[in-house]
């Protein structure tokens, strides 16, 4: 996945580099021996050498939490949003992630926050992991980033700095933090809290490049992107992409609804990291708290956005209760079933149908990680098998097709390759017209 945990270990022969397809990868750059590589594999969230998500979470949360086989351990589950200041306005959803990070720093629970923030475009990327030690710096890291990042540099910085930190990331990155803490006492003392964001999958750098081209803007002139610009009066799941173009000293903002920009559903997996096909952790099971979007009927109509929150840490639960009593946040208790309903498609793809993806890749003779389910083709319908086959094919093809399109300086090369696949996928996914009508009437 290119998270950077392996490259952050002292004397590691591994470095994280951007591939030609715009994804971070671990690359061996020095001589090494098998034992070193095995040790480094023990901090990799997709290797087999150490603990899986459930085993890690069990050690951390079993004493105080209940367990659900979809979302993992939990103390409490909420939907909610920040009331004070402008956290909700400036967040992708309800603003509770940035609100909590500020709370942890302001009240002295941590000395800093390790999270993703915008960076100087001269570095060759728009976002990267960095350390925030002020409230203003934390606020700069608000919003979701559908963009590749890696942690090796920032983890090396944290290793040599005093104090405790809150680490923010998608589930596999947080798992890597936990594994690193298990193997390295120096690092384990740095982790104050681990905070996970719900995740569908990671996108390559070319995903933004592609969207910007569809806006008729030169990607090389983009200096900032907001992937979750809220549209006043629209449901929370109807958001826009806003980019900042700098040209001849002028700054120009371009905004366009994602529904207008993208003609394929998110689940189809265009520009997706391959590793994401082998992750079954939707809700950040190893994190002290996981936050996502409340895609439920009673919340999604609110343009301002609402978070789904899974709390596993008693200290964080106390922080939330105190803030609720002081009317600084609004939270309503939910059940694990509400979380599952909110992310129904994500859970189905990532957990229920993982076994079939494992089966398909093993069939090709390619190594796959051991997961909490076995490779199988017997547990899902023929239609769902076809859907999985096309998702794998579309993800693979999208990287190659876009690379060729840019090489030939002709975006039509990408569209000519992808559009037939997308149309065929949509036909399979939607099914027979009469079946669709029946389902709609039934709903």
Can you walk through the features of this model?
Helix 17 (382-407) runs antiparallel to helix 18 (412-430). The protein has 443 residues and is of the alpha+beta class. The protein starts with a helix and ends with a helix. The radius of gyration is 21 Å and the shape is globular. 42% of the residues are buried. It has 19 helices and 15 strands. The chain has an 8-stranded mixed beta sheet with strand order 7-6-8-9-13-14-5-15, with helices on both faces. It has a 3-stranded antiparallel beta sheet with strand order 10-11-12. It has helices at residues 5-8, 34-41, 53-61, 87-90, 96-106, 135-139, 152-159, 171-183, 185-188, 205-214, 258-261, 297-300, 314-325, 336-342, 344-352, 354-363, 382-407, 412-430, 433-442; strands spanning 14-18, 24-28, 66-68, 72-74, 76-82, 112-118, 127-132, 165-169, 191-197, 222-229, 240-247, 250-257, 289-293, 307-311, 329-333.
Keywords:
single chain; 443 residues; alpha+beta; 8-stranded mixed β-sheet; 3-stranded antiparallel β-sheet
Structural class: alpha+beta
Give the low-pLDDT segments: none
- Distance between the ends: 39 Å
Describe the largest sheet. 8 strands, mixed
Fraction in beta strands: 15-25%
Count the helices. How many? 19
Radius of gyration: 21 Å
What is the strand tally? 15
Mean pLDDT: 94
Q: State the shape.
A: globular
Helical content (DSSP H or I, runs of 4+)? 25-40%
> Major sheet: order of its strands?
7-6-8-9-13-14-5-15
How do the helices and strands line up, and which of them pair or pack?
Layout: H1 5-8, E1 14-18, E2 24-28, H2 34-41, H3 53-61, E3 66-68, E4 72-74, E5 76-82, H4 87-90, H5 96-106, E6 112-118, E7 127-132, H6 135-139, H7 152-159, E8 165-169, H8 171-183, H9 185-188, E9 191-197, H10 205-214, E10 222-229, E11 240-247, E12 250-257, H11 258-261, E13 289-293, H12 297-300, E14 307-311, H13 314-325, E15 329-333, H14 336-342, H15 344-352, H16 354-363, H17 382-407, H18 412-430, H19 433-442
Parallel strand pairs: 6-8, 8-9, 9-13
Antiparallel strand pairs: 1-2, 3-4, 5-14, 5-15, 6-7, 10-11, 11-12, 13-14
Helix pairs in contact: 17-18
């Amino acid at each position: 996945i290119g998270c950077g945990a392996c490259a952050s270990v002292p004397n590691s022969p591994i470095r994280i580099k951007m591939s030609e397809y715009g994804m971070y990868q671990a690359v061996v750059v020095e001589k090494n021996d098998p034992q070193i590589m095995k040790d480094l594999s023990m901090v990799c969230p997709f290797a087999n050498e150490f603990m899986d998500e459930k085993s890690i979470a069990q050690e951390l949360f079993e004493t105080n939490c209940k367990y659900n086989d979809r979302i993992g351990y939990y103390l409490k589950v909420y939907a909610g949003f920040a009331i004070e200041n402008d956290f909700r306005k400036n967040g992708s959803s309800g603003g509770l992630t940035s609100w909590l990070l500020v709370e942890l720093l302001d009240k002295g629970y941590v000395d800093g926050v390790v999270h993703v923030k915008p960076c100087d475009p001269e570095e060759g990327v728009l976002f990267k992991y960095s350390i925030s030690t002020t409230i203003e710096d934390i606020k700069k890291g608000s919003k979701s980033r559908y963009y590749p990042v890696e942690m090796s540099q920032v983890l090396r910085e944290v290793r040599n700095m005093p104090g405790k930190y809150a680490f923010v990331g998608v589930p596999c990155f947080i798992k890597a933090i936990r594994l690193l803490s298990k193997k390295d006492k120096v690092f384990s003392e740095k982790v104050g809290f681990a905070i996970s964001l719900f995740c569908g999958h990671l996108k390559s750098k070319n995903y933004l490049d592609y969207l910007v081209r569809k806006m008729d803007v030169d990607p090389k002139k983009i200096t900032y992107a907001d992937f979750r610009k809220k549209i006043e009066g629209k449901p929370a799941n109807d958001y826009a992409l806003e980019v900042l173009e700098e040209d001849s000293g002028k700054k120009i903002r371009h905004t366009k609804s994602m529904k207008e920009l993208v003609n394929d559903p998110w689940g189809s997996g265009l520009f997706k990291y391959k590793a994401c096909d082998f992750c079954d952790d939707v809700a950040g099971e190893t994190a002290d708290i996981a936050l996502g979007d409340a895609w439920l009927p009673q919340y999604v109509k609110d343009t301002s956005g609402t978070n789904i929150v899974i709390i596993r840490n008693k200290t964080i639960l106390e922080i939330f209760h105190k803030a609720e009593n002081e009317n600084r946040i609004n939270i309503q208790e939910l059940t694990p079933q509400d979380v599952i309903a909110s992310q129904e498609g994500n859970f189905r793809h990532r957990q229920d149908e993982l076994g079939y993806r494992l089966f398909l890749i093993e069939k090709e003779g390619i190594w796959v990680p051991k997961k909490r389910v076995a490779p199988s083709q017997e547990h899902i319908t023929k239609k769902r098998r076809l859907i999985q086959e096309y998702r794998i094919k579309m993800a693979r093809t999208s990287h190659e097709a876009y690379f060729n399109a840019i090489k030939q300086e002709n975006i039509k090369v990408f569209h000519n390759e992808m559009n037939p696949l997308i149309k065929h996928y949509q036909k399979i996914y939607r099914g027979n017209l009469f079946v669709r009508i029946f389902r709609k009437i039934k709903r």
